[in-house]
Request: fold
Amino acid sequence: LKKIVQIICELPRARPEKLNQILITRFNTVIKDYHGKTEQERFNKVYLEAASGLIKTVRDISRTMNTFRFLFQLVRHEVNIIDLLGISILTVSCPELYYFIRDHKDLLCDSPLLRYDSERMKALQEAFKAVIARLPDRDQAPATATVYSMFPYFAERIKGATRDGHGDDRQSELDLRICSSVRFPTYFQYGVVEGDISQSDVAGFIAESPDETKMTDRLMHHIKVGNAGALIAELRSRQDQVPDGGVAPLIRLLLTHGDKIEEAPTRGAFFFLDTSWRVKMLLVHLLRRVPWERRTTLLEDIMLKSDLGLATQTSLIITLRNTRENHDAGKPEDAYAD
Reply:
């Protein structure tokens, strides 16, 4: 038998700038075919100014990029890839902190329910600090900075700042950021959450909005599979992305089939943002994009040709009346749909 001898070799410590260069090269190789949004400023903030301090060896890079590559293939169109890199580094370098993040969405995404429970908020903040304190001394500062860079609302809160409004703002949701309570679960379930809708499906719906037949088919499909409420929530967030040619068809679609959309699970910071409310707000926004002289004709045409319920017809009559009164009174365009 041949005896296997293990010899310990002390390798020279790699310089941080060299490690950064290696990781950036491998990161770019993984995302080379990715056409989504990337931001150099956020990459600098999340990685170069924070998470890079957790990368100490080439082996750390290999383990991190293996994790990132696996997750990237699963959720590349559903998440922000810079946040995905940050969470991949924490998965490898600080697993206890990773699990704390996974289990505390309300704390990190600035949930309004937790915001008004100061005792529980303080207890969870202390729990976070305890997790950080259990890390090796040299990892504590970069790990904390990494969390703060991905969860700015939490960072403000733990530093004693207060926020007006809510943390789960629309821009974070649009950017697929982990600090959005809507996007947060996807980072830990490795796919579209049950009852939610993929970004590619939303993009396809918006792209086909000028074709009312195709759009109707898509809506009926989402009603059937049970995620039409999620579609409406996405359209509400991305309402400005609807092309001009798709505005009138989408208005007709919502007025004609809106009552068939199931109540969506709560998405966003406030419990009252249900599907029916989002449909109404989406309609208001879309109607404001239609010139007043066309708006009257469009609504009258919908009333004549669609099988609308009494409540919807009454709402349209009120809208028509307000449109004419606002125009006659010389009110600005954004008042016409109110």
Q: What stands out?
A: The radius of gyration is 25 Å. Residues 268-272 have pLDDT under 50 and may be disordered.
